[in-house]
Write a structure and sequence with these properties.
Number of helices of chain B: 16
Radius of gyration of chain C: 21 Å
Oligomer: heterotrimer
Helix content of chain C: 40-55%
Distance between the termini of chain B: 32 Å
Distance between the termini of chain C: 25 Å
Largest interface: A-C, 40 and 46 residues
Shape of chain B: globular
Strand content of chain B: under 5%
Largest sheet of chain B: none
Strand content of chain C: 5-15%
Strand order of the largest sheet of chain C: 1-2-3-9
Largest sheet of chain C: 4 strands, antiparallel
Chains: A alpha/beta (about 160), B mainly alpha (about 400), C alpha+beta (about 375)
């Protein structure tokens, strides 16, 4: 199935939760999904026979200035097709439901997105920092991130 | 040696110079054992040094690289450099360590490796003490190493040293059982615990076919089992998991540095030699080997010939200086006479045979270490208890039946 | 052991069991990985991998550099596969920018990528044997690896980090001398591979240490997002070079080795090891075909040092020696990326450690980590 059919299928089933299909001239198309319906959409995409997205490749986080995005790259081994989902959230309260109960690989990807971008994944079994030390302050990949002047005696100069 | 010295003292010395009778009997006795013991320790140390070099060189060749080749010509001074380095290191003791156990451990391990050398013969006459219970002595004192290992596990006060020490002690202790069963095979067949007599029993067949491995299929199998059990007992690869798990966590000798570590290190190489020499003596005919030895005349006894020479030389009542000259003269005469030279050739070829076999087995131990991966500890115990032990029992039973049916 | 700056699983711990720390420095050559292992006597109950010791802020740095300047940073992620790392990044940027890559450049990329795959698998083979106590295969593998590194040095100037695939092509052209070196290497590799096989693969001790250890089922492999030899070792016959070919891989014929449980269970450590061994031979085939069919022409399409990329986003995955390496490049129309996210295979493969290191012996943990074959540069980026 190509991305348009997947988008249509999802639109049919989930209506308001699914946003527009962004199809740039070059590059990948992505389907906008509202945060509150993400878990249902993902479960449907994994279990439905027509889509069968059993492989969660990657969860990225992007800071677009006005909002943060959590991007999900999916792949299906049986059907060999891909899909990209995008969840946009507020900078101030970036909460996205976790999909780690749907794909086990999501656990570490969500931890990294939390660590680097500060997106909080609800119902994640253990949402702690993964790359940075536990007592680090701030989320480095945000565009307005200021590195701390000092960390345990190490200065920033 | 005891009775020789007694006889000498009474009839040899006393006959020449009554002054020498005042020298107490035990003095030459003690001196002889001190000198002999010193030679043994020196041999052990030199051998450990030489074989560290040998191992590194052989390992290098197996691994398509040169071994040590910088220190001295062909790198033969490398062990000396290593020894100096180890001696010059700081002696560290962890603060949580139990001082007594920490210090005693290397000593006990070293003792366990060194004591068997007291009865280990190099040739028919070249042995420190030719004990009737020689074999039993070797096996018993090898077990002292286990106590040393346990102390080394607990002494440093580190939980990982404890883990490693316990595991290693279990491995060493368990493998003593199959080793003992294999040795039992030879004891049944040869009928003696005296190492010299065991080799004499093996010289009964034509050329090398008197060896134990050719005398009974039980002995043939027992040889290989003994060798494997020996590999495990000396914690050599592929049985070195307790040692090499130190790559991940910590092993029993990680907390030791400098001279203490040198003790552990040397005792490993010495224990290897003991196992190889024992295998050569018990199963491969010891010094009765591929190279044939000259035939000795009947009743070839060096000391009685020397004694006769002394009696022939002079009557009694010589001064000290003169009697010493007589000693020296007759000694030289007997030693370089026909009997002396024959005995010398006999013994030297015996030593060469012995070294051929022992060092050949030593080389195989090194070869195996650099070829095979490590066996996991539960698989090590499985091998011992479920494979070697039953086979050992079968071999021992077979040997017992063979001795009864075909005496 | 653990200090304030790292998380310690203290809340859920029963006091009878022991917490052992493996790492971050240990002689197994996998890098700075810290494993907190909860043991009950000999058995390992749970493990917590702690990463981040090699985090070098690659993604943040990439946001402040022109696209062409990011490539040396991609080299340093999986430092054992530097010919493979820049490929997905270059492909993503070329996709967004509409740059066409000449055929010769594609062939050269494939040749170097496959040679690097062989080198990486030789190292994996050697260090895995080393972890299990067989010291010699490590040095044998390095003998062939030296030949490959000399070839790389001739063509790129570097032995480990090459900066060779560039946006629009490759950095330098191949000379007949280098081609002769590659052919000589292929002859040598085909001669020694059966020796390695005899030395290690069928060795009973090695088999006992790796067969039926660390079994990853097919469903687990897919659910945890494993890729590469870890996935194929569990019986899933998926290889990006076959399923979604890039750089002209569809022109070459090769097989994809899959684990079948030949020595134990499908998906055990032996299968993953075997997939890597077999892949080395397949890579030899690919290199030979590419070398034979190398077309004439330019090896580089001039794109300039600094260029504006049209707005958009692209995710391109490639088959790294360790699995699927992909770069998600988000462009806002300027000459610097808005966001570069790297999907590192070792990071994704490592997450299965906790799930399969349950109720195994400590020695098995070493075997399992070795069979996953991680490079910490990639895990931490």
């Amino acid at each position: 199935m190509d991305i348009r059919s997947i988008h249509a299928l999802l639109r049919d089933r989930f209506e308001n939760i699914i946003g527009e299909l962004q199809t740039p001239e070059r590059g990948d198309a992505s389907i906008a999904v509202a945060a509150e319906g993400l878990a249902d959409v993902c479960r449907f995409l994994r279990d439905n026979d027509a889509t069968r997205f059993d492989f969660l490749r990657l969860i990225s986080s992007v800071d677009r200035g006005t909002r943060l995005s959590s991007i999900y790259h999916l792949y299906s081994y049986p059907h060999s097709h891909t899909a990209v989902l995008r969840v946009d959230v507020d900078r101030e309260a970036p909460r996205v439901p976790s999909v780690s109960s749907i794909w086990a690989s999501a656990e570490w990807h969500e931890r990294e997105a939390f660590d680097m971008m500060g997106i909080i994944y609800e119902n994640h079994p253990e949402l702690t920092r993964i790359l940075l030390p536990d007592d680090w302050e701030g989320h480095p990949l945000r565009k307005d991130y200021q590195p701390p002047a000092e960390y345990h005696g190490l200065t920033n100069t | 040696m005891n009775d020789v010295i007694q006889t000498f003292h009474q009839s040899g010395v006393g006959a020449l110079c009554p002054v020498l009778l005042y020298v107490p009997t035990w003095l030459p006795f003690v001196l002889a054992y001190l000198v002999g013991g010193g030679i043994i320790v020196a041999f052990m140390a030199v051998m450990a040094l030489v074989w560290t070099y040998g191992e590194r060189r052989i390992a290098g060749f197996i691994q398509v690289r040169l071994g040590p080749n910088r220190v001295g010509p062909l790198g033969i001074l490398q062990p000396l450099a290593d020894a100096i380095k180890l001696l010059a290191k700081e002696d560290i003791m962890p603060s949580a360590a139990n001082w007594g156990l920490f210090t005693a451990a290397p000593i006990l391990v070293f003792l366990g490796a060194m004591l068997p050398f007291a009865v280990l013969p190099f040739s028919e006459r070249i042995v420190l003490t030719n004990m009737q219970l020689g074999l039993y002595f070797v096996l018993a004192f090898q077990a002292i190493e286990v106590i040393g290992i346990l102390m080394a596990g607990w002494g440093p006060g580190s939980k990982w040293s404890l883990y490693g020490g316990m595991r290693l002690a279990a491995q060493m202790l368990s493998y003593e059982i199959p080793m003992g069963l294999c040795v039992l095979v030879v004891i049944f067949l040869a009928g003696s615990l005296n190492l010299g007599e065991i080799v004499a029993w093996q010289s009964q067949g034509p050329w090398i076919f008197g060896w134990a491995i050719f005398r009974s299929p039980a002995a043939f199998v027992a040889f290989f089992m003994f060798y494997i059990a020996g590999l495990a007992g000396t914690k050599r690869a592929p049985f070195d998991l307790p040692e090499a798990e130190s790559e991940l966590v910590a092993g029993y000798h990680t907390e030791y540095s400098g001279l203490r570590f040198a003790f552990f290190f040397m005792s490993e190489y010495a224990a290897m030699y003991v196992v190889c020499a024992l295998a050569a003596i018990l199963f491969l005919g010891g010094w009765h080997g591929p190279i044939p030895r000259p035939a000795l005349p009947e009743n070839a006894a060096f000391f009685s010939t020397w004694l006769d020479a002394i009696h022939a030389q002079a009557g009694g009542g010589l001064s000290l200086a003169a009697s010493l000259k007589v000693f020296a003269g007759t000694l030289a005469g007997t030693a370089f006479g026909k009997l002396g030279l024959t005995i010398a050739a006999y013994e030297i070829i015996g030593v060469i045979n012995m070294f051929l076999k022992a060092f050949g087995l030593y080389f195989v131990m090194i070869w195996v270490r650099w070829t095979l991966p490590r066996i996991r500890i539960d698989q090590v115990m499985y091998l011992c208890l479920k494979v070697l032990l039953p086979f050992g029992l079968v071999c021992a039973t077979w040997a017992a039946i063979q001795v009864v049916v075909f005496p | 052991m653990a200090n304030e700056t790292t998380r310690e699983p203290a809340d859920t711990l029963r006091t009878e069991e022991l917490l052992i720390n493996m790492g971050p420095q240990h002689p197994s050559t996998h890098g700075v990985l810290r494993l907190i292992v909860q043991t009950d006597g000999e058995m390992v109950r749970r493990t917590w991998p702690q990463i981040g010791f090699l985090h070098r802020c690659f993604e943040k740095i990439a946001e402040s550099l022109d696209y062409a300047k990011v490539i040396p940073y991609t080299d340093r992620m999986d430092y054992l596969g530097s010919m493979n790392n820049p490929l997905p990044f270059c492909l993503a940027v070329e996709k967004l920018g509409g740059f066409a890559v000449p055929d010769r450049a594609s062939y050269l990329r494939v040749i170097m990528a496959e040679l690097n795959r062989i080198a990486s698998h030789l190292l994996a083979f050697g260090t895995y044997a080393l972890d299990l106590g067989a010291f010699t295969p490590f040095l044998y593998g390095f003998r062939e690896r030296e030949m490959i590194l000399s070839i790389f040095e001739k063509i790129s100037g570097g032995r480990l980090l090459y900066h060779y695939p560039r946006i629009g092509g490759v950095a330098r052209d191949m000379t007949p001398e280098i081609a002769a070196d590659i052919r000589a290497f292929l002859v040598q590799m085909r001669k020694v591979w059966p020796e390695y096989n005899t030395l290690l693969s069928k060795n009973q001790i090695f088999v006992k240490r790796t067969a039926n250890v660390g079994v990853i089922t097919r469903e687990q492999a897919i659910a945890y997002g494993l890729t590469g030899p870890c996935l194929r070792g569990s019986g899933v016959a998926f290889d990006l070079r076959k399923a979604h070919p890039y750089c002209g891989y569809e022109r070459f014929s090769f097989d994809v080795p899959v684990g079948e449980g030949a020595m134990g269970t499908t998906g055990d450590c032996w299968d993953r090891y075997w997939v890597r061994m077999a892949e080395m031979m397949e890579s030899c085939k690919i290199v030979e075909q590419a070398l034979d069919g190398l077309p004439e022409g330019p090896f580089f399409e001039k794109v300039g040092r600094s260029f504006d990329l049209p707005a958009g986003e692209a995710y391109v995955p490639c088959e790294n020696p360790r699995g699927e390496l992909g770069f998600y490049v988000v462009s806002d129309g300027s000459s610097k990326a808005l966001r570069v996210k790297s999907r590192a295979p070792s990071f994704c493969n490592l997450c299965i450690t906790d799930a399969i290191c349950r109720d195994v012996l400590l020695a098995d943990v070493v075997a399992i980590i070795g069979s996953i074959d991680i490079v910490l540069g990639e895990v931490d980026r």
